[in-house]
UniProtKB/TrEMBL annotation, chain A:
Name of the protein in its database record: Ribosome production factor 2 homolog
Keywords assigned by UniProt, alphabetized: Nucleus
An example Gene Ontology biological process: ribosomal large subunit assembly
Molecular function GO terms recorded: rRNA binding
One Pfam match: Brix
SMART domains, A to Z: Brix
Family affiliation: Belongs to the RPF2 family.
Main subcellular localisation: nucleus
PROSITE patterns according to UniProt: BRIX
Ranges for region Disordered: 278-315
Domain of life of the native organism: Eukaryota
Phylogenetic lineage: Eukaryota, Viridiplantae, Streptophyta, Embryophyta, Tracheophyta
GO cellular component: nucleolus
InterPro entries: Brix (IPR007109), Rpf2 (IPR039770)
From TrEMBL, chain B:
Composition-biased stretches (Basic and acidic residues): 224-235, 296-306
Role description: Involved in ribosomal large subunit assembly.
Region feature (Disordered): 57-89, 219-243, 283-318
Positions with biased composition (Basic residues): 307-318
Subcellular compartments: Nucleus
Protein name according to UniProt: Ribosome biogenesis regulatory protein
Keywords: Nucleus, Ribosome biogenesis
InterPro entries recorded: Ribosom_reg
One GO CC term, this protein: nucleolus
Keyword presence, Ribosomal protein: no
One Gene Ontology biological process: endonucleolytic cleavage in ITS1 to separate SSU-rRNA from 5.8S rRNA and LSU-rRNA from tricistronic rRNA transcript (SSU-rRNA, 5.8S rRNA, LSU-rRNA)
Lineage: Eukaryota, Viridiplantae, Streptophyta, Embryophyta, Tracheophyta
Pfam family, one: RRS1
Length: 315, 318
């Protein structure tokens, strides 16, 4: 017995439609949570990350003991939370003796884990420790500049993945129109060694210059930390291909003479040249011969005016 | 934008992203501050590069400031959900395609010929409303005794039921192809029962409570000491309810308890058995029966006998 369930209120319907798979997607939301134990650094990192991403992030305050992103069974809770909150990126913080000040950045595809990267936090400076002119403080939800420096981001696969994940994390919504006065923040990531990345958050000061383009000055406001690459998990090729698919990948090459019909399926057109009926070679020779015989006989009858048995016998 | 020949940045304006693949730390940075300073300067250069492209884009002036149209981002990032799958055609759509039936746009207001007015197609005071028909003419194929209005209602119910079934089937095929519309959910309500077509009737909350109460009364103490499940509400009237009449007669009042027991005894012993039988009614009933037998039981609609008035122990009195 199946029942069709539709939302009874317009609000519920709008929520469901917002979460449905679309051609052009909404900005990814981030889920911030922590594990069994967290140190002061980790909890402040998570809190500040939440503040930076205020509009598009959800922070869970309870500890989650059964989430272990790198183990096969430990992702079910994460996937459930991702489904419930409609979040496709997660930041999981924890602190153990073996992995102190640990942060796992992960992404989801269809609410299943797509890829993971684990980083350790070092030299963390909270945003409260920076002193700057409050007027230039970045506003909540403004679109940031993201800058990567260092050849490591191109050559080393882990750093390449980190670059992609950080872009996804900080990007926010993809917008078409941008107000130039609203540009006030930038994230600077520098690869200082093949395994270490220095990340900082700066506010932008636009200074007058001679041209339309203002001179940019960056002032550090924000949390700054060193990320040490620990473990990572890349997505498998098939999943990656599917996730990277977009609707306008390549225009379908028009195959000629083939038609798709919903009812009949695939239809083809075949062109046949003009048939000259008299010259078609016949398979059954005997019949053709018979007709020729008959016609020949009729002709002869007309000419001679009498049936000739001799003609029959001869043929 | 090129600053020096070996310093070409990879800029993605759509994402406000810039990447400098050519930077190398020339010397090991002496201190943390030096390192930070160098990183920030490099970052500034990159942001300046993006801003150069950004501010040179055609902008429109609005109240809040200059608005630019960003080009689409060039870095490809993975999607968060799969691409929406195409919906398989419904049974009607397949049929329409086969027959070449085109969809026609229907007007909201239609001309009604019975009343020469324009009426709406759906809703209050609509064209061809089923409830508005005053007279339905009888056809030769109609049997007498059938209510055509009730038949129309029945037909409509059947049509609606068939449509719902078809809709469910279409949604099932869509769900199989992974293309269920986002606001619809298919839920399994019960186990499939083979053999019977009737759905098991769901017992309501009050009915369940009543049954629990009934079961409680069957216990010796009337359900007073029954173990309660967590969340179960206390029953309405617990325990045995026995109304005890006052034994001590009050001044001026009849001794009620004595009267009660006497009444019961009297009925049992039939001391006043003649009062139990209503002689007049019995005679009438007898006469009726006799007349009926004579007439031959022609009229079907006769009032039923009043069987509630019993004659207990009428024979045993003597």
């Amino acid at each position: 017995m199946m029942e069709i369930r539709t939302p009874k209120t317009h609000k519920a319907k709008r929520v469901l439609e917002k979460r449905a798979p679309k051609l052009v997607e909404n900005g990814k939301k981030t889920l911030i949570l922590h594990g069994t134990k967290t140190s002061a650094t980790v909890s402040s990192v998570l809190m500040e990350l939440y503040r930076l991403k205020k509009g598009g992030a959800i922070k869970y305050s309870r500890r989650n003991e059964n989430i272990r992103p790198f183990e096969s069974g430990g992702e079910t809770s994460l996937e459930f939370f991702s489904l419930k909150t409609d979040c496709s990126i997660f930041v999981y913080g924890s602190h153990t003796k073996k992995r102190p000040d640990n942060l796992v950045l992960g992404r989801m595809y269809d609410h299943h884990v797509y890829d993971l990267i684990e980083v350790g936090i070092e030299n963390f400076k909270s945003l409260l420790s920076f002193s700057y002119d409050k007027k230039i403080a970045p506003h909540e939800g403004s679109k940031p500049f993201i800058c990567f420096t260092g050849e490591g981001f191109e050559n080393i696969p882990e750093l390449k993945q980190l670059k992609e994940v950080l872009t996804d994390l900080f990007r926010g919504e993809v917008v078409e129109n941008l107000n130039l006065t609203g540009l006030d923040r930038a994230y600077i990531c520098t690869a200082i060694s093949p395994t270490k990345v220095f990340l900082t958050h700066c506010a932008i000061k636009l200074k007058k210059s001679g041209t339309i383009v203002p001179r940019i000055e960056l002032v550090e406001v924000g949390p700054s930390m060193d990320l040490v690459i620990r473990r990572n998990r890349l997505p498998n090729e098939g999943l990656r291909k599917e996730a990277m698919k977009s609707s306008k990948d390549k225009p379908k090459k028009k195959v000629k003479n083939v038609d798709q019909n919903d009812v009949l399926g695939k239809l083809g057109r075949v062109y046949i040249p003009e048939q000259e009926v008299g010259k078609i070679p016949m398979a059954d020779k005997s019949k053709g011969v018979k007709r020729e015989r008959r016609e020949g006989k009729m002709k002869k009858n007309k000419e001679e005016g009498s049936a000739s048995k001799k003609l029959k016998e001869s043929e | 934008m090129d600053m020096e020949t070996d310093q070409i940045y990879q800029i993605d304006v759509g994402n406000l992203l810039a990447f400098n693949p050519n930077h190398r730390f020339s010397s090991a940075p002496s201190s943390r501050e030096e390192l930070v300073k160098e990183c920030v300067t490099e970052g500034t250069k990159l942001v300046q590069a993006i801003a150069d492209t950004l501010f040179n884009l055609p902008s429109t002036e609005t109240n809040d400031g200059p608005l630019v149209q960003l080009p689409p981002p060039t870095t490809k990032l993975p999607r968060e959900k799969h691409l929406p799958r195409p919906k398989p055609p419904t049974k009607w759509e397949e049929f329409a395609l086969k027959k070449g039936i085109q969809k026609r746009k229907k007007d909201k207001i239609v001309y009604d010929e019975t009343t020469d007015k324009f009426k709406r197609r759906h809703g209050y005071d609509r064209v061809n409303d089923d409830n508005d028909i005053p007279i339905i003419e009888a056809k030769a194929s109609d049997e007498p005794g059938e209510d055509p209005f009730a038949m129309r209602l029945d037909d409509k119910k059947k049509r609606v039921g068939k449509q719902e079934k078809n809709r469910l089937e279409n949604l099932k095929t869509a769900a199989k192809a992974g293309a269920l519309p986002s606001h619809v959910q298919l839920a399994v309500t019960g186990l499939p029962i083979s053999g019977t077509k009737t759905q098991p009737k769901k017992i309501g909350k009050e009915a369940l409570g009543d049954v629990a109460g009934l079961a409680a009364t069957s216990t010796a103490s009337g359900g007073k000491f029954d173990k309660k499940l967590p969340g179960e509400k206390p029953p309405k009237k617990q325990g045995k309810h026995h109304k005890y009449l006052p034994i001590v007669p009050r001044y001026g009042w009849v001794d009620e308890e004595k009267e009660q027991t006497n009444k019961v005894l009297g009925k049992l012993l039939s001391k006043h058995s003649h009062e139990i039988l209503n002689v007049g009614k019995a005679i009438n009933m007898y006469n009726d029966k006799k007349e009926k037998k004579k007439s031959g039981r022609s009229d079907k609609s006769k009032a039923k006998k009043d069987i509630t008035k019993k004659k207990p122990y009428a024979n045993k009195a003597n």
